[in-house]
Specification:
By secondary structure, the protein is an all-beta fold. It has four domains: 108 residues, Immunoglobulin-like; 168 residues, Galactose-binding domain-like (Jelly Rolls, Sandwich), CATH 2.60.120.260; 91 residues, Sandwich (Immunoglobulin-like); 168 residues, Jelly Rolls (Sandwich), CATH 2.60.120.260. The strands form seven sheets. Strands 28, 29, 30, 31, 32, 33, 34, 35, 36 and 37 form a ten-stranded antiparallel β-sheet that branches. A hairpin with a 2-residue loop joins strand 23 and strand 24. It is elongated, with a radius of gyration of 39 Å.
């Protein structure tokens, strides 16, 4: 807003006073403390007399009268608030105090903001009081999750009957902090019994653990008194069942790990003294909380029930503090705050539907419930039904391998009638000694099929010799009979590689004599009559490679 003030001129009519035609700032209001702001005036004078300008801030001269029509203001933190900047012009032929003036309203924002800091946990290890009633412990006045309305039971600090003053309230932070402000809601019970609240007080800081543990009111050993802008807390308004916040500003530039409020007396109650809530605050620039830049799943939504999805969060902290993560599904925590930035969701049919996956982060220097949060939508769909496709017969006409031991032919790994426990003899595919990799496993179906999934039970012999099992592999499809018959490992003529969700098969668990099924998902929409598994290597056996069972599946 511009305020215009005309100063009546004096002097002979032969000379007219100057007139200000504009007064502007090069930046719009408001601006943050520390910003350079240039105010510029334009004025005219009928006789083109030399003009002089003077600038004022809230009525106080910032310059004398000079020829410069501009003034630079670099406000500091102490200038936070609303101001009036004024310019006066004169031509030295009229009033020596100026012939015309204009003003601008301009606001300066604080460079800082405040943020709450908390103890490591809400218990009597970290918040101590000289006296407290059972279930009215001091930590209840610090826990931000508790109610600020209704009964004070379980929601506030309150002494036992007969303790109405001379109480210490101590808090320990995760590290030394420069507390600049304490915000409080004084004691009330459903909006009444407000005279219980703390009245006169003293604030102290310390880095001495023994001082923190000593709750004797008059023993100030190891404590430093911190000046405050007030020395009495405001009584809660009687009848108001809810929060009423008040602030205590501390003149403090020292980082203390421990802080004390010496509660001298209450507002007249003859039985107790207490507080409903205390919030200890630092300047936001003292320690900023971590921020989350991304939350991403390893698989795109939607995914079928039964799929395991890994969600990974990326976060950063300005001070490189250690970051903890908490993962949620539909607002319900699935983990506590953990150091891992990833979480695996093992879905089932009960998860079918739309969900919100969330993550919170904290650095244990700010909000214990999380400094930043991010969420994404994710859908779990009804799983598709698969049916197993089999070759026309279980023999080497339809299942071929580069190498096999006698009575360990490849078709034995496809025949569903064979046993998945006990000896591998007659029940699995296995190479002759010396063939430990670079093996082709081909299967022919009666007609072209769109194979979408392969399930397998890797090689074992009575639950042992599990390192024989296939490890790295490649899946291929073809409609060429010649390609099917060619078992040369390195010849991929007429074969098309099919993308799979994994490229290594899992080694069978040693000692488990029975089926352990694993799944390979194929990204495949083409019908092939012939499929190949190129078995690159095994899990370390120096003699053979093989499979106990492999099944090829299509959508039902």
């Amino acid at each position: 807003m511009i305020h215009r003030h005309y100063v009546p001129s004096a002097g002979v009519p032969a000379n007219y006073p100057p007139v200000i035609t504009s007064f502007t700032a090069n930046k719009s209001s408001p601006q943050t403390a520390g910003t350079s702001i240039i105010f510029t005036a334009s004025a005219t004078d009928v006789e083109n007399d030399p003009l002089e300008y003077k600038f004022l801030l809230d009525g106080v001269d910032q310059t004398g009268f000079t020829s410069s029509s501009s003034w630079e203001w670099v406000p500091d933190e102490g200038d936070s608030g609303s101001h009036t900047v004024t310019v006066i012009v004169r031509d030295n032929h009229h009033s020596p105090d100026g012939d015309d003036s204009e003003s601008l309203d301009f606001a300066i924002s604080s460079l800082y903001s405040y943020q709450a800091v908390y103890s490591q946990a809400f218990d009597e290890n970290y918040i101590k009081t000289t006296n407290r009633w059972f279930e009215f412990e001091g930590f209840r006045a610090v826990n931000p999750s508790l109610s600020l309305s209704g009964g004070r039971y379980l929601n506030s600090w309150l002494t036992e009957s007969g303790y109405v003053g001379s109480q210490r309230f101590h808090i320990e932070f995760t590290r030394d902090r420069v507390i600049k402000k304490i915000t409080y809601c004084n004691s009330h019970h459903d909006g009444y019994e407000t005279n219980v609240g703390v009245r006169d007080f003293i604030i102290q800081g310390s880095n001495d653990a023994s001082a923190f543990s000593n709750l004797t009111f008059d023993n100030d050993t190891g404590w430093t008194t911190i000046p405050t802008d007030v020395s009495s807390m405001v009584k809660h308004t009687e009848g108001h069942d809810g929060v009423l916040w008040n602030d205590i500003n501390l003149t403090n530039n020292t980082a203390y790990k421990y802080y004390a409020i010496k509660c001298i007396n209450n507002h007249g109650n003859a039985n107790y003294i207490g507080l409903r809530r205390l919030i200890f605050q630092i300047l936001a620039l003292d320690n900023a909380g971590p921020t989350i830049s991304s939350l991403t799943p390893n698989l795109a939504s939607p995914q079928a029930a039964g799929t395991t999805i890994v969600f990974t969060a990326t976060a950063s902290d300005p001070e490189s503090d250690s970051i903890q993560y908490q993962f949620l599904v539909d607002g319900v925590a699935q983990t506590g705050f953990i150091s891992s930035n990833s979480w695996s969701w093992e879905t089932d049919t009960g998860d079918i539907g739309d969900h919100t996956i969330g993550v919170k982060v904290r650095d244990n220097n700010n909000n214990p419930f999380g400094d930043d949060a991010k969420s994404i939508n994710f859908t779990i769909s009804t799983p598709p039904e698969y049916v197993t496709v089999y070759p026309p017969a279980y023999n080497e006409t339809y299942i071929k391998t580069t190498n096999r031991w006698f009575e360990f032919e490849g078709f034995r790994a496809v025949d569903p009638a064979l046993s998945l426990s006990g000896s591998r003899y007659l029940n699995s595919w296995l190479t002759e000694n010396g063939y430990v990799g670079s093996q082709r496993f081909h299967v022919e179906f009666a007609s072209a099929q769109i194979i979408k999934r392969i399930t397998y039970c890797n090689s074992h012999n009575d639950g042992y010799d599990t390192n024989v099992g296939v490890k790295d592999f490649i899946v291929q499809g073809s409609n060429s009979a010649a390609a099917f018959s060619n078992l040369n490992y390195g010849d991929n003529t007429d074969w098309t590689e099919i993308t799979t969700n994994v490229t290594s098969m899992i080694q069978h668990t040693t000692g488990v004599d029975g089926a352990i099924w694993h799944t390979v998902e194929l990204t495949n929409n083409v019908a092939y009559k012939y499929y190949a598994i190129k078995c690159v290597n095994n899990h370390g056996n120096t003699s053979n490679i093989g499979l106990r069972r492999v099944e090829f599946k299509k959508l039902a």
